[in-house]
Amino acid sequence: MITKKCSECGKEFNVDDTKRNWQSVILCSAECQHERTNRKSREKYVKQTWPQERICEWCCQPYLLYEGSQKTNRKYCSRLCYLDKKRDEAKRDLEARRVKKICKHCGVAFITGKFSGDRQEFCSKSCYRKYTWIKNGRSKNGYYEQRF
């Protein structure tokens, strides 16, 4: 048995050193645990002064956050600013996925679509069809070439 001092009420109490987490025990009873939890929550609530003034991350305008608001971790002053930010992120993501490439068939430079990225090799479906038609042994006029 080890004697420790309660961090809440100051009383000395014994802890069984054979138990698993005896080093982390700092409170003597469940009542002290309950009292500590209530005190911590009161301190947290008292530290927050209402209304809180914050700065919007999108438009940089100050706005007030009131005590009854559902979200206290808001970053934007309005739903409009939030949606503008999301729209801008989506646009940047789209631009990052587009790549400038050269068509395998006609040699024209083109920008890939938003979903194809690096996989796209042709500027259009017609170039793809013409390329595969010639590649498979057909001539440009639509007939098979004779291979000797």
Which secondary structure elements does this structure contain, and how are they paired or packed?
Elements (H helix, E strand, L loop, with lengths): L1 E4 L6 E4 L14 H18 L4 E4 L6 E4 L13 H19 L2 E3 L6 E3 L13 H11 L13
Antiparallel strand pairs: 1-2, 3-4, 5-6
Mean pLDDT: 80
Strand arrangement within the widest β-sheet reads 1-2
**How helix-rich are the residues, as a percent range?**
25-40%
Strand content: 5-15%
The low-confidence parts are none
Task: List how many beta strands DSSP finds.
Answer: 6
- The gross shape turns out to be elongated
Structural class: alpha+beta
Structural domain tally = 3
| Alpha plus pi helix count | 3
- Distance between the ends: 97 Å
Instruction: Give helix and strand order, one letter per element, not per position.
Output: EEHEEHEEH
What is the radius of gyration computed over CA atoms, rounded to a whole number of angstroms?
34 Å
Question: How would a textbook summarize the main sheet?
Answer: 2 strands, antiparallel
